[in-house]
């Protein structure tokens, strides 16, 4: 008899739904036969038949037919009928009378009635009574009672809430499984941020309960399960759960599925799911659609979706509108949208607004927005503040610049780490400089790689001689950093790599790096390439590269040209280049060039 009472309570909570038209006529006939059998038994005075028949009619929505059957069974002492009578009276709007019957059934041991009575008291604000009856239900293993008790205790901040949430989840309550998973997931995130070892185990436990809830049709559990699997790289299974959740109407899952499809190269399918999510009010999906249309050059459609994102409460919509307007040269409108997003707390919009103001010459207006963005965690804004302070030239601003660069560098900003490294080198703190230069070089900065190489190069001891008198060359770390910078197009690094190659006798490699640097505009590269060519007997080609170097202000190249033209007998041209070398320097070059120039002048005037 208790089972029937439990089912009636499930009906009340929505777990049972009104039966739709059966697929087969046989099911209708079978139900009709069962109802007739119960009705005949009830008319014959069978209390159990009255109770079951009343529950059947109650589930069908026939309250008038159910009530006399339930009342008769209740009068005969059937506790399941008393519970179901309470459900019926609640549906009629007689909550207090329903509570009376639930109390009778609960005292008689009905866990379902105790749950219903506990909920009744909670709705009326009587939490002590609610806790008493919900605990009675939960302790009898009633899943709904355990969940309702956990919800009450959680609302009060009671530590015992998780125990009952877990009990409800283990009895198959899907919402309890979901909420328990969320609580464990949040705890795992905190453990992970704090560097604790327990985070992985907690995440695995959370996944278990997400799976349990998702398997029972909980769409948000399916969404979170998909997110866990995606982070772990299990994209195929993640996509299946996102799809399950999205089909059940979860807009965030549809959006996430769209991103998964886009990353897999299926942009068209991604757009379908983003559209579905955006139409359900997901701002992130609307932004994704806007970006997709912007990439295709469909700016009007992109703007429409960005506005839809903004209307959905997503501040990225205003920020993206600002970016779109800025790309089109609509500066005033870009500023308007950046301001809207920045005032809403969008840190990258605040940074973009500050840059826009700075480009317009409004340094005073830009600085507060840089500060606001940086304080909110924008790494780029912290770096930009460093640039702003560094440009003012005062000692106080230099210190402020270093502080902001340091903050950006700590967050992984490559150029900021380079600036800190350079500042530490100026201060003579080579150890700190090396640490920051390594970070910047590792992040892809060619300048940092070059500067790190020079620091390491300065420490390098002289190369030992081989037993037979040949240099024994071993590749050093500084050479590796020089080569990394050179490969990235750093001209001074290219010259240095060329010099190192020349030192070990690899003329071809040296010429390759000198030529690459020279063609990129390096006057030292052009000069060194000229020296190499001259030594190989190609003085005419060497003169071409020395001319390029001298025109770029290289004094030694100008002196070499003066000597070349003098040897050829072109004294006037030699005098011109000697005069140029004397002007360019450095001192020893100027001295030699002046002597040559004066001698040529005397020769020409003789």
In short:
With 606 residues, this protein is an all-alpha fold. Helices cover 79% and strands 0% of the residues.
Question: In words, what does this structure look like?
Answer:
With 606 residues, the chain is mainly α. The protein has helices spanning 2-13, 25-43, 47-60, 63-75, 79-92, 95-107, 111-123, 127-139, 143-155, 161-170, 174-193, 199-215, 219-231, 235-247, 251-263, 267-279, 283-295, 299-311, 315-327, 331-343, 347-359, 363-375, 379-390, 395-410, 414-427, 430-442, 446-459, 477-487, 491-503, 507-519, 523-535, 539-551, 555-568, 571-584, 587-605. The termini are far apart. The model is unreliable at 1-22 and 466-470 (pLDDT under 50).
SSE blueprint:
Elements: H1 2-13, H2 25-43, H3 47-60, H4 63-75, H5 79-92, H6 95-107, H7 111-123, H8 127-139, H9 143-155, H10 161-170, H11 174-193, H12 199-215, H13 219-231, H14 235-247, H15 251-263, H16 267-279, H17 283-295, H18 299-311, H19 315-327, H20 331-343, H21 347-359, H22 363-375, H23 379-390, H24 395-410, H25 414-427, H26 430-442, H27 446-459, H28 477-487, H29 491-503, H30 507-519, H31 523-535, H32 539-551, H33 555-568, H34 571-584, H35 587-605
Helix pairs in contact: 1-3, 1-5, 1-7, 2-3, 3-4, 3-5, 4-5, 5-6, 6-7, 7-8, 7-9, 8-9, 9-10, 10-11, 11-12, 12-13, 13-14, 14-15, 15-16, 16-17, 17-18, 17-19, 18-19, 19-20, 20-21, 21-22, 22-23, 23-24, 24-25, 25-26, 26-27, 27-28, 28-29, 29-30, 30-31, 31-32, 32-33, 33-34, 33-35, 34-35
């Amino acid at each position: 008899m208790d089972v029937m009472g439990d089912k009636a309570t499930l009906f009340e909570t929505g777990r049972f739904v009104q039966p739709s038209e059966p697929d087969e006529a046989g099911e209708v006939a079978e139900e009709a036969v069962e109802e007739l059998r119960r009705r005949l038994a009830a008319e014959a005075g069978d209390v159990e038949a009255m109770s079951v028949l009343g529950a059947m009619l109650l589930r069908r929505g026939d309250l008038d037919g159910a009530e006399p059957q339930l009342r008769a069974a209740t009068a005969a002492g059937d506790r399941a009928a008393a519970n179901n009578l309470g459900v019926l009276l609640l549906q009629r709007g007689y909550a207090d009378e329903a509570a009376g019957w639930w109390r009778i059934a609960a005292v008689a041991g009905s866990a379902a009635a105790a749950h219903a009575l506990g909920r009744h008291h909670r709705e009326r604000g009587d939490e002590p009574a609610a806790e008493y009856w919900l605990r009675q239900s939960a302790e009898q293993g009633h899943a709904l009672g355990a969940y309702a008790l956990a919800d009450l205790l959680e609302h009060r901040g009671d530590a015992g809430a998780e125990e009952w949430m877990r009990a409800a989840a283990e009895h198959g309550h899907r919402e309890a499984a979901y909420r328990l998973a969320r609580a464990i997931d949040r705890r795992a995130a905190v453990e992970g941020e704090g560097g604790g070892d327990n985070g992985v185990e907690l995440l695995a436990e959370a996944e278990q309960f997400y799976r349990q809830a998702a398997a029972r049709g909980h769409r948000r559990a399916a969404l979170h399960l998909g997110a866990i699997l995606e982070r772990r790289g299990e994209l195929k299974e993640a996509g299946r759960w996102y799809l399950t959740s999205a089909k059940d109407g979860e807009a965030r899952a549809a959006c996430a599925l769209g991103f998964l499809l886009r990353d897999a190269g299926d942009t068209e399918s991604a757009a379908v799911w983003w559209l579905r999510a955006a139409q359900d009010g997901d701002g992130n999906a609307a932004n994704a659609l806007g970006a997709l249309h912007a990439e295709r050059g469909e700016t009007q459609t992109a703007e429409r979706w960005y506005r839809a994102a903004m209307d959905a409460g997503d501040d990225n919509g205003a920020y993206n509108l600002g970016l779109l307007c800025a790309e089109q040269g609509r500066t005033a409108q870009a500023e308007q949208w950046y301001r809207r997003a920045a005032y809403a707390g969008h840190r990258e919009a605040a940074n973009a607004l500050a840059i826009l103001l700075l480009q317009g010459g409004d340094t005073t207006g830009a600085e507060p927005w840089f500060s606001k963005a940086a304080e909110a965690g924008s790494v780029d804004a912290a770096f930009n503040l460093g640039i702003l302070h560094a440009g003012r030239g005062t000692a106080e601003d230099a210190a402020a610049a270093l502080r902001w660069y340091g903050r950006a560098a700590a967050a992984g900003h490559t150029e900021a780490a380079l600036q800190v490294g350079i500042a530490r080198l100026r201060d003579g703190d080579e150890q700190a400089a090396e640490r920051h230069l390594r970070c910047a070089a590792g992040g892809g900065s060619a300048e940092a790689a070059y500067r790190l190489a020079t620091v390491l190069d300065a420490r390098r001891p002289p190369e030992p001689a081989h037993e037979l008198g040949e240099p024994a060359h071993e590749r050093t770390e500084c050479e590796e950093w020089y080569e990394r910078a050179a490969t990235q197009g750093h001209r001074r690094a290219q010259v240095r790599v060329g010099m190192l190659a020349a030192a070990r006798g690899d003329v071809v490699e040296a010429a390759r790096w000198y030529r690459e640097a020279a063609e990129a505009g390096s006057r030292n590269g052009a000069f060194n390439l000229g020296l190499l060519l001259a030594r190989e007997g190609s003085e005419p080609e060497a003169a071409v590269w020395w001319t390029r170097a001298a025109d770029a202000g290289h004094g030694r190249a100008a002196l070499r040209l003066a000597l070349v033209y003098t040897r050829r007998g072109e004294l006037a041209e030699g005098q011109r280049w000697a005069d140029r070398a004397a002007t360019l320097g450095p001192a020893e070059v100027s001295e030699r060039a002046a002597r040559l120039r004066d001698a040529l002048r005397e020769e020409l005037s003789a």
